[in-house]
Amino acid sequence: MPLFKTIEIDKNTSVFVWKITETVDVLSDVHLSKNSLNRLNLMKSIPHQKGFLSIRHLLAHINLSDDDLFYNEFGKPILKNGQHISITHSYDFSAIVISNSSVGIDIEKNREKITIIKHRFTDLEQHQLSTEDYIKQLTFIWGAKESMFKIHPCGGMSFKNDLIIDKFTYTNAKGFINTPEMKQDCNIYFHQLENYSLAIALTKNEHS
């Protein structure tokens, strides 16, 4: 299907979401650079192929092509026009966010499995969250930290200790990246798309 949803975070930050219903053959009708074509041919997972290709359709939707996108040594996507981009996909959805500020995005399917790995990324107990939406809220917290991780210039950090979430609500939160390489405040925005949790982390008053 075409574009599923557009979300305007602010005047300089937009999110574009694709719901993946097409086959790989249909999604393959999009321009790919030689490097991307090589990457696609190495992918054995059909869902990964679909996610990869649908991202290129989202780029085309905003009048960019695969040639406008490249990756740095840490695997972070960069646009040649100088804008910031972050990319995510999970099962039925893919999404990109474009901004004039450093930004990260993550989409996750709401699954019980999140409760098993909770100890890896948060100390919040169940009584501190809504019982009714416990899975969604944990997924939002994970997505918020994954989004901040994508802003960080390099890896090697603790999701629990170095990526801080505060003032959590159903629609937003405050975040802080606290590593030797970066001390950065972030605004976090949450959206629910069917049974998926979408989180966007946007830097404010950047400093490192």
Report on this model:
With 208 residues, the protein is α+β, with helices and mostly antiparallel strands. The chain folds into 2 domains: 1-100, Alpha-Beta Complex (Ribosomal Protein L22, Chain A); 103-208, Alpha-Beta Complex (Ribosomal Protein L22, Chain A), CATH 3.90.470.20. Helices cover 25% and strands 35% of the residues. It has 5 helices and 11 strands, in the order ββαααβββββααββββ. The protein has helices spanning 24-27, 34-42, 46-61, 114-117, 134-151, and strands spanning 3-10, 13-19, 69-71, 77-79, 84-90, 93-99, 103-109, 163-166, 172-178, 183-193, 196-203. A 5-stranded antiparallel beta sheet has the order 7-11-10-9-8, covered by helices on one side. A 4-stranded antiparallel beta sheet has the order 1-2-6-5, sandwiched between helices. Strands 3-4 form a two-stranded antiparallel ribbon. The chain is globular, with a radius of gyration of 17 Å. The mean pLDDT is 92.
Q: What are the salient characteristics of this protein?
A:
208 residues; Ribosomal Protein L22, Chain A; 4-stranded antiparallel β-sheet; 25% helix
Task: Name the CATH homologous superfamily of the largest domain.
Answer: 4'-phosphopantetheinyl transferase domain
CATH top level of the largest domain? Alpha Beta
Main structural class: alpha+beta
* Separation, N- and C-terminal Cα atoms: 40 Å
Number of continuous helical runs: 5
Query: CATH fold name of the largest domain, please?
Result: Ribosomal Protein L22, Chain A
Oligomer: single chain
The value of Rg in angstroms is: 17 Å
Strand runs, count: 11
